[in-house]
Amino acid sequence: MTKQKLRIALFTGLYAPFLTGVSVAVHQRVRWLLEQGHEVFLIHPQINDRYPKNVGDRPMPGLDEIQSFPNFSAYAFPTQPLLFYKSLPQPLHYRHWSDTKLLEKFKPDIIIVEEAAQMRGLYSFFLQGYGRPIGTEYAKRTGTPIISLFHTDIVAYIKYYFGDQFFSLVRPIIPVLVKQFSEFYDFNYFSSKEQLTKYEELKCQRAEYVAYQGIDCEKFHPRNICYDPIPNDNRPTLLFVGRITPEKNVNQLLDIFPVIAAKIPDVHLVIVGSGPLDEEIRQRAKKFGSGITVWGESHGTQLLGWFARADVFVNPSVTENFCTTNNEALASGTPVVAVVAPSTSEQVFPGRNGFLAQPNNPTDFAQRVIAILENPDLKADMTRHARPSILEFDWSACMQKLEDKLYQIVEGSQKVKVGTASIRPQR
Q: At 225, phi and psi to the nearest 5?
């Protein structure tokens, strides 16, 4: 028996052309749901002239890929740049637009909120943001189920950006905040078991693990070596792909590089991405000459080529949740050296598809990379195991699990409504 297609309202604080792992994942999720025949109403951030020009010019998949679906509709809510990161958006306050009115018009079967804490304003310590929980007023009034999907380890970001001293001051109120922004939702889903455990300890309400965060394993593949961006360069290549921001620890790659180069003189580090630390990284990289290439942003087949071309993917970030680029590298057949962070132990299996290094320890990180580059047999074995180790997180498999959850929630909600209606006193 074919299940009835769902009417899904999906709120997201990040979407193309704002480039993050979240925006890429949300687009993939919406497209998959549309391909299954579900009706999707996407409520996403508006791009305007308050952002740097290069933000709006990115050639990344977005609305243009899904506008043609007859079961798709969208609304771009008004935004302003995030105080601490001008290339990313924050929703304007609810005085300027109404999530409730949007939902009243669409009448969804279920509401999904991606990065609910960010949309409410936690990223700016409530100096910006919507000012109240997204979608919950309508959900409560109508009995419509509403769920939130966690992406960012917000607590780790607070600690990284504001330091240990400030974190120790606010640490007592963090469980209060986590409980507050999670208790409004029927379910709060995490794509990382480690992050789930961490946030359960911080009083996150109705929290569950669902492997909803996948990648397209058919797209990211070792055969993409045919798109090699530097085909005549035979140096062993280390690759980083991500936002050039403090929490990604990109600066630490420049501390690690000379330690590796002392053992592997012809090693080549390629940094792909953009962000507020662009100029600082470029200036520091100059002293290493051609040993370090700060490539900038990469898209399309060129990016696929980088993942397949690299000998080792390096990720020094201590704030990662279920990191998309780690998985994209592994699916491309590239071993990963990452630091121990939320979820990296769910992606990297030491000695099999890469290594885990101690956080903020450049020497330990460098030794892990050297161990792979100096041992061709070990590297070949890791390359062989890299792709199989991540296939369970293929996008279709992950989305099937989330879709099953959506049906369970909607069916459970309908049963509750029927049961409640049956006991109402007759007039």
A: -60, -20
CB-CB contact of 148 with 116 (8 Å): yes
Contact partners, residue 25, CB within 8 Å, separation at least 6: 151, 213, 324
Nearest to 387 by CA among 347, 344, 346: 347
pLDDT confidence bin for 165, thresholds 50/70/90: confident
Nearest to 321 by CA among 114, 52, 43, 109: 114
The pairs formed by 342-348 with CB atoms below 8 angstroms and a separation of 24 or more are 342/153, 342/156, 342/192, 342/194, 342/195, 342/198, 343/191, 343/192, 343/193, 343/194, 343/195, 344/315, 344/320, 345/194, 346/192, 346/193, 346/194, 346/322, 347/322, 347/323, 347/390
Q: Would you say 330 and 247 are in contact if contact means Cβ atoms under 8 Å apart?
A: no
Nearest alpha-carbon partner for 410 in 194, 225, 186: 186
Paired with 207 in beta bridges are 188
Number of H helices, E strands in the chain: 17, 15
Whether residue 61 is preceded by a cis peptide bond, meaning omega within 30 degrees of 0, is no
Beta-carbon count within 10 A of 272 CB = 22
**78, 96 contact by CB (below 8 A):** yes
- CA–CA separation, 383 vs 124, rounded Å? 41
Run of H or E including 207? strand 207-209
Angle between helices 362-373 and 250-263 (to 10 degrees): 50
pLDDT bucket at 416, cuts 50 / 70 / 90: low
Side chain identity at residue 298, one-letter code = S
Give the containing element (helix H, strand E) for 44: strand 39-45
| Residue 282 predicted with pLDDT over 50 | yes
Q: How far is CA 246 from CA 271, 284, 399, in A?
A: 14, 15, 31
Task: Decide if pLDDT at 120 tops 60.
Answer: yes
Q: What is the C-alpha separation between 387 and 220, in angstroms, rounded?
A: 9
- The total of other beta-carbon atoms located within 10 Å of residue 181's CB is 22
